[in-house]
Amino acid sequence: MRAETGNGAVFMAGGIDLVNRMKFGAPVAEVIYLGGVAGLGTIAEMAGTLRLGSLVTHYQLETSGIVRKRFPALAESWQDVANIRIRYKGTIGGNVMTADPAYDFTLAAMATGAELHFLGMDGTARIVSAIGMNGALPDGLLTAITLPMARRPRLAFDRSLRPAVTLALGLDLDNGKVVAGRIAIGCAFAVPLAATLPLDEPLPPREVAQRSAILAHDVAVSLPEPVNNGHASAHYRRRMIEVLLRRNLGALAVGLA
Amino acid sequence: MTSRVDIAITVNRRLYRLSVPPNRVVADLLREDLMLTGCKIGCDQAVCGACTVLVDGLPATACTTFAFELDGTALTTIEGLSEGGALHPIQRAFLEHSGFQCGFCTPGMILSVKALLDHHRDPDEMTIRQWLGANICRCTGYQMIVEAVRAAAQAMAG
């Protein structure tokens, strides 16, 4: 349908952002309402991943038994996202596709090392790594987000400095060592931004905790210039990225030791 | 864009069959077509909660919900909360505990509380405050609203 109607047509999931954008004059010729599309609102374990349909609401994410079992920090953190009305209606797919740097689910997808599944206008499927996306969203319909479970990613979210900076952190464990880390930063750049933890080799969690200040500094200085606006200066944001990363990396690693 | 969409919705226990423009939001439908002006428009951006209505018992933002989305659902506005001329216990509690001043946020606030108490019969203060984070009141400072919610919970339980 979207291919037939052209660029003026937009997909609508929960619709909260879309309606707001239309009120501010966004050119929308056709709305393709996804509300009744079966299968896009389910949560299931599939081939070593947790598969979240793009129409899964924030409330589903918060209360799902599977999410609580596999990604408890994600479910727990989602109790504080927006408010109960938004969580009932807003979807994780809409959250990603809006590409607002202040929104949270893209950060969760980046921190978990998730993959985004799109259905293109020509009907072909395309899979995109969330951490490699950095604001470049493919054209097409987002159908699902899959979170890998094999390396038992452990997560931390910090929204305490919103709207200056938000941060999500994911650590992968293998044989008791931290083998990879992903950092996702919201509010501080024009788009949600991802970075990787500069680990030369797998490290025991205790050593990661001990080196958290150095690792956080290395990440913070490697990032592009943050935005400078009424919420916070670019300098403050970079400094707070370092502070939040040090705190969360230290706490998460200590909890794993 | 399609010119009209046919929908059937139940509003305050009464079934309506309507033909609406696809970009008609629920707040305008209620206020201008059905004359249910208890649904207030504050921020008009899904933030303040003044336009809160209940859709199948769950709180929803009428200002950012298209009318066509509600096809087949049951809607409750503040006008539909009382029955037989008697105030709902939540309305009575707000009155008795001075849970409002200017009253603009009150319809949305009361409907949010209705959904809260339908889900949690005896919510603690943190749950009440977290839930009401979805509704902004610039007059009362919230303390009396929280007291009204507690009183309403007791009244509805007993």
Explain this structure to me?
Chain A is an alpha+beta fold. Chain A has eleven helices and eleven strands. Chain A has helices at 2-5, 16-23, 58-63, 65-70, 72-77, 84-89, 92-98, 105-112, 205-210, 212-222, 234-256; strands at residues 9-12, 30-33, 43-46, 49-53, 115-119, 125-129, 141-148, 154-158, 166-174, 177-186, 193-196. A five-stranded antiparallel beta sheet of chain A has the order 3-4-7-5-6. A four-stranded antiparallel beta sheet of chain A has the order 8-9-10-11, sandwiched between helices. In chain A, strand 10 and strand 11 (193-196) form a beta hairpin. The relative contact order of chain A is 0.12. Chain B is an alpha+beta fold and 158 residues long. Chain B contains five helices and five strands, in the order E-E-H-E-E-E-H-H-H-H. A five-stranded mixed beta sheet of chain B has the order 2-1-5-3-4, with helices on both faces. The longest helix of chain B is centred in the C-terminal third of the chain and has 15 residues, at 143-157. The A-B interface holds A 15-16, 19-20, 22-23, 29-31, 33, 35, 79, 83-86, 88-89 and B 1, 22-23, 25, 44-46, 49, 52, 58-61, 63-66, 68-69, 112, 115, 130-131, 133-134.
